[in-house]
Amino acid sequence: MGWLPLVVCHSISACLGSQNTGLFCIKKTEVNQVGGTKAITAIPTTPVTENRQFGSKMTDSKYFTTTKKGEIFELKAELNSDKKEKKKEAVKKVIASMTVGKDVSALFPDVVNCMQTDNLELKKLVYLYLMNYAKSQPDMAIMAVNTFVKDCEDLNPLIRALAVRTMGCIRVDKITEYLCEPLRKCLKDEDPYVRKTAAVCVAKLHDINAQLVEDQGFLDTLKDLISDSNPMVVANAVAALSEIAESHPNSNLLDLNPQTINKLLTALNECTEWGQIFILDCLANYSPRDDRESQSICERVTPRLSHANSAVVLSAVKVLMKFMEMLPKDLDYYGTLLKKLAPPLVTLLSAEPELQYVALRNINLIVQRRPEILKHEMKVFFVKYNDPIYVKLEKLDIMIRLASQANIAQVLAELKEYATEVDVDFVRKAVRAIGRCAIKVEQSAERCVSTLLDLIQTKVNYVVQEAIVVIKDIFRKYPNKYESVIATLCEHLESLDEPEARAAMIWIVGEYAERIDNADELLESFLEGFHDESTQVQLQLLTAIVKLFLKKPTETQELVQQVLSLATQDSDNPDLRDRGYIYWRLLSTDPVAAKEVVLAEKPLISEETDLIEPTLLEELICHIGTLASVYHKPPSAFVEGSRGVQHKRLTSSAGSGESVESPDTGSAAVSEAPPAVIPSQGDLLGDLLNLDLTPPTSSGPPPSAAPGMQLGAMDLLGGGLDSLMGDESEPLGGDIGGSPAMGAAFGAPPAAMPASFNAPISGGLDDLFDLGGGGMTMGTYIPPKTVWLPAMKAKGLEISGTFVRRSGVIQMEMTLNNKAMSVMSDFAIQFNRNSFGLAPAGPLQILTPISPNQSIEAALPLSTVGPVMKMEPLNNLQVAVKNNIDVFYFSCQYPISMLFLEDGKMERQVFLATWKDIPNENESQFQIKDCHLNSDAASNKLQGSNIFTIAKRTVEGQDMLYQSMKLTNGIWVLAELRVQAGNPNYTISLKCRAPEVSQCVFQNYETVLKN
Amino acid sequence: MIHSLFLINHAGDIFLEKHWKSVISRSVCDYFFEAKEKAVEPENVPPVLQTPHHYLISIYRDKLFFLSVVQTEVPPLFVIEFLHRVADTIQDYFGECSESLINENVVTVYELLEEMLDNGFPLATESNVLKEMIRPTTILRSVVNTLTGSSNVGDKLPTGQLSSIPWRRAGVKYTNNEAYFDVIEEIDAIVDKSGTTVFAEIQGVIEASVRLTGMPDLSMTFMNPSLLDDVSFHPCVRFKRWESERALSFIPPDGNFTLMNYHVSSQNLVTIPVYVKQNICFFETGPCGRLDITIGPKQTMGKTVEALMVTIHMPKAVLSANLTATQGNYSYDLTTKVLVWDIGKLNPQKLPNLRGSLSLQSGAPKPEDNPSLNIDLKIQQVAISGLKVSRLEMNGEKYKPFKGVKYLTKAGNFQVRT
Lengths: 1011, 418
Fold this sequence. Notes:
The structure holds two protein chains of two kinds.
Chain A: H1 4-20, H2 29-39, H3 47-51, H4 71-79, H5 84-99, H6 108-113, H7 120-133, H8 138-141, H9 145-151, H10 157-169, H11 173-187, H12 192-208, H13 210-215, H14 218-225, H15 231-247, H16 258-270, H17 273-283, H18 291-301, H19 310-324, H20 332-348, H21 353-369, H22 389-402, H23 408-418, H24 424-440, H25 445-457, H26 461-477, H27 486-491, H28 499-511, H29 519-527, H30 535-551, H31 557-568, H32 574-589, H33 591-598, H34 614-621, H35 627-631, H36 635-657, H37 668-672, H38 681-693, H39 706-717, H40 722-725, H41 729-738, H42 760-774, E1 786-789, E2 797-806, E3 809-818, E4 828-831, E5 839-840, E6 855-863, E7 876-882, E8 887-893, H43 908-917, E9 923-928, H44 935-944, E10 948-955, E11 958-966, E12 972-980, E13 986-992, H45 997-1010
Antiparallel strand pairs in A: 1-2, 2-3, 3-6, 4-7, 5-6, 7-8, 9-13, 10-11, 11-12, 12-13
Helix pairs in contact in A: 1-2, 4-5, 5-7, 7-10, 9-10, 10-11, 10-12, 11-12, 12-15, 14-15, 15-16, 15-17, 16-17, 17-19, 18-19, 19-20, 21-22, 21-34, 22-24, 23-24, 24-25, 24-26, 25-26, 26-28, 28-30, 29-30, 30-31, 30-32, 30-33, 31-32, 32-33, 36-43
Chain B: E1 2-8, E2 14-19, H1 29-39, E3 48-50, E4 55-61, E5 64-70, H2 76-94, H3 99-104, H4 106-116, E6 117-118, E7 121-122, H5 127-133, H6 139-148, E8 178-191, E9 197-211, E10 217-222, E11 231-233, H7 239-245, E12 248-250, E13 255-264, E14 274-282, E15 288-297, E16 305-313, E17 318-325, E18 329-333, E19 338-344, E20 353-360, E21 373-380, E22 389-395, E23 402-416
Parallel strand pairs in B: 8-23
Antiparallel strand pairs in B: 1-2, 1-5, 3-4, 4-5, 6-7, 8-9, 9-13, 10-12, 10-22, 11-13, 14-15, 15-20, 16-19, 16-21, 17-20, 18-19, 21-23
Subcellular location (chain A): Endomembrane system
Region (Disordered) (chain A): 641-712
Membrane topology (chain A): Peripheral membrane protein
């Protein structure tokens, strides 16, 4: 009897639904109307709902109708109903609430109770619910395990697959334990549908618990699936392996060889479009042995260029662009392939704008690498007025890249057309593009200049300004040719309000001062508001006036005095001051020299602007179709970059939350009074931050002047802080990190830094600082050779050896000693799987047989891309050596410093953030006894082994060195080494995300420091 | 791979979210909203956005944003293609892709999304396969379901899932066997002030509607296949046959599908069917301007040009238009500044003309930008490139199907600059 009122209550609520929907935050009026009309008569609200008016009962909008309060209560009752249909409806209501982001987790036990059912729809719905909420109710989720395990044995493959698939989506550790056995069975299931689902499940499980997947041997099973008879299973196995491989860059999971390649190519023809993408992307990682193999792969991939799915097309383009490199250029096939590439790329441009955008970003790369492919296709890049702005800008870029003498007339006509469009950004870029054409195609320069002059006549403010900026570049490229237009430019002097245009105009006036009668008046007029100008304009004005003075010394002495005093005495900007002083000193000591310096002939500017640097371009070509290709940044910048940004965020949040001074507040108090006691970790980090970034001047530096500014600051700080200030990219780092869009650049390895950040001048000084701070670094420590394989164990072959790392190459250096009576030959070597994937990079080169009592030296280069297995101890290496007599086994231990990369110097901010980020339980502390080096010597010694000192602090006579190293598999180890003068015992704290390596690293410190 | 999907309406409300891995908070969309704000027009939101922890890849379709969140390096085209596939599927199931319809069918949409991706990997995206897994709701089915207690979710493994022809289900039966093909060509062109063609190309597509029993094997040949040098096919087309014989050989999916897209870019093949004489100018003095447009036939291959329409995006300063049309009607939308002249059939004897004056906001400077004209038109029974199907043969089944081919030429992105 108890539930009867409830049912009544429910039906009332259904009727009231239309009113209550308003309480739903996500509710839409449309639904409201449908719900409302249901109660009265079905009045169609739109032509579409008209078809549905009879069906209003069928629509899911009814699941939203609920009462305010008792909703959960009611659903509970319905879920526990005896009637199947009612149960299902109730679960649907729950799902509907879930999809709009409502919390219905309270119903967990009731929903799970509905799981055991023959009704597949109900089962699927419950699964949907489970996947969403299991994480929040891990203990309850266990209730579902039995049903899953049972379903994995079901006769219907659909149910088996569904069970294993859903189980993988429940991201609860406890569940994963139960998942292993069913998964193992499903990976070997007779039904390919189950196998292909299970393959993906391995990737899911790996995401939750990588170790478990490795321990259970699922990775090997997955590799076996690459040879499966069903193409869909192959494609999914490849997809799963690729995803897993991404989190283990060096694990060599996708071991590609001609056999597997052949299998992939066969599967390529038969699997779905998505599978084709996975397979093509995987193929692109393969390096063919010779041009023949390249060609045969290319031949088998080209049909994909005609696929309707643009992602398939672009992945195929990637494979072709990459393998084409291996083909000899005189080969007929090479030409054919080039021709085949153009049409599919053009076709991509008739797709939806979003696809066009990605395609254009990639075409931009392709055009830089192989302009011949699209050189005749200029017209498809012409802009349509209703293209989205992001497409317009990209098209414009490519138009300039394709511009040549042959098509320049057309291009110019187009660009002129664009310059009268509505969108300001686009117009600006079009005007700039005209200038770039002039610089690129000499024959067109004249026409470009006249076009620009026409545009200046329109008097549209931003058009004029852009035109002046580009005309400046044209002057530089073609000196003494177009100066006749200066008069026209000068007419527009007053209308310039953007710094770049003002600076350009001032440059022109200064450069051609002798031809402009009233140059002094013009420049003087700028001088009036000198302090309100931006730095860019101030610097330019200073230089221009000095130029003017050198050209017309008599009339302009006063002017130059004025600007020098403004720049040096009245300015807070060190950049400006420095430049002012330099000019001043030059002019006062040796005016002839000044003339030579200031009026020196300028180097020509390059034809192509913003070309991607060739090595980066090559890398990006290998990543066509990926996010890297959209952002034109190397993928390493992405993986690292995202981490870097994370760190950046962590630092700033620490700044606000834990009372650590944030860099830009730069409190002077902290630097004035260094902490008297050994600071706690948080404070220490805070201090480092301050030391790092506090400029000695009181006002904040203008961003553009930052590098120079910070260098100026170094002088004043001087002393022991040298090493802290070593890296000039740091101050800029702060600025970059601030904007999320640029985030990836920050924290990326140096190679990924845009070149402009490494201003050459500061780079030079940087080197000096490094030398001053550190002195010469010592060579790598090479452990002496030890006997690995005694002669008595190996039928007379004695092997002793050691490991060396020289300029990034790891070598195993061995002495092979023949102590037997017979000649030894046919040597070969193999490694067992080991912790860091060490493997011979080539065969063992012993060319001559070793006669009795002869010994021979052999060096074997090693790579770190071999198969990985954790060893005990970690640096243990099991080796098998074969000769004409037998096979011998031995094991040896390599110093872990072999694996420290040369680029293991972490940026300071990243270091700080990472240090904080790694949980304290990962920290281990060791003592190094009887070491008599001072901290600088220790630091130098360690640097020889690629252990880099990032910062040094001295607190109460104790030197603290902060050091980083990076292992070949991408693991970073951070160290804090404490050295007390006069105390031979060092303390070292190591922090690493993989704490297992700490012991090895410590041992390495010990050996390096003591030898 | 694809981590999560958010559906966002025009106003910027998230009305559906689906996660294929762990749940990602909605707040991730804030980065997108920021970009949306900045872009002003929804069409201009950049499709790939980088945030500190995720990448947001979105498409804008039918006034809805489909926003996917990814965490690792994935091919963005893959994601965009997939998102379009989601929109296609919704359209296919419910007739239209709109917020109200998605809300009405939210559970079905959710089930579909679950079926389409597993752990971010595409699982079943072919509409034939999906329809066997989750049946579209029809009135009849819902009645049957209530009577028999059966459900909308198929409990058998769809046959197409693993076969080498995943696009076709087994056991198709029809009483009337028919195969229709529409050859549709769109002219994309830019014509400059003087009437010279700056750029012209044809985007062609062969849309098929095939309702044939069993496993028919079709092959289609063309009178002039040499036109087709840039093509992309439905996966069902056997590429080898095309390479060797220039014939389309395929086992068709059941129902409607796009058989082939092609692209004719060589300009001498692209004929421009109409010419436009136009003069739009604004006076230096006084807040007004003049407009005079005449359209005439150029190369129409002897057919009539229908559904002719001219759309002009006027400069912002144009307040109103006082015009007379010799044929058709015109309207000027004040808020969007769009002038539409709907002409209808083009009569070669009496060329349609629209002329009159434009009035500008007083005090506003003379507009700098010149408006472009967008032309819409249709020509029935002809493919403007001259492409013609010569034969359509069927093997593998005994019955005689009814076959038909239709041609249609339309204006795609046809712009006349002033």
